[in-house]
Amino acid sequence: MYLKRLDLQGFKSFPEKVKLEFNPGITAVVGPNGSGKSNVSDAVRWVLGEQRAKSLRGDKMEDVIFAGTESRKPQGFAEVTIVIDNQDGRMPVEFTEVQVTRRVFRSGESEYRINGAACRLKDIQELFMDTGVGREGYSIVGQGRIDEILNAKGEERRRIFEEATGIVKYKTRKIEATNK
Ligand code: ATP
Ligand code: MG
């Protein structure tokens, strides 16, 4: 399972459709200050369901939509698609390639799709649960997160290890079952 492609359109500093291709192994994204490196990692967290505008370095969700420059008009929506190679079947679906898409309009409503079919945010969260990918997944370690993990108190640190070891899915189901 690896990140194969990221398509951005109207997301932050990417007004036109851009396709970023990745290969298995290590990829480094390099570029001058302000060129959009962090916007790429914001796009990954956003498409996986990030709801907190602040964590995407904005004030409101609309701030992820390309705001325009002197020579370009603003965009009406932002759309990001993440393409994941699932040939090893680590994701619990029959597809060997999984595409997750999120689109947001200026009104603020988000639309989600899995391999082109409309779905709920919850479906995306379940899809990635215990794969290590996802909004809270350990696969995205932001600046300052290392210190956060090292300084975390018992409970919080346990949560990180639970996600990493793959038992969150069962805990969530247990909570759902006992609440019914
Ligand atoms: P650094 O090396 O300083 O960390 P970076 O390559 O990570 O830089 P980013 O933070 O990804 O850069 O990109 C910042 C740029 O994105 C700024 O120029 C900012 O104006 C632009 N930007 C962010 N949101 C939007 C938006 N909604 N519309 C247009 N441009 C945006
Ligand atoms: Mg940056």
From TrEMBL:
Residues binding ATP, per UniProt: P32, N33, G34, S35, G36, K37, S38, N39
Compartmental location: Cytoplasm
Domain notes: Contains large globular domains required for ATP hydrolysis at each terminus and a third globular domain forming a flexible hinge near the middle of the molecule. These domains are separated by coiled-coil structures.
Quaternary state and interactors: Homodimer.
Family: Belongs to the SMC family.
Function: Required for chromosome condensation and partitioning.
Protein name: Chromosome partition protein Smc
Lineage: Bacteria, Bacillati, Bacillota, Clostridia, Lachnospirales
Coverage span on the entire protein: 1 to 180 of 1189
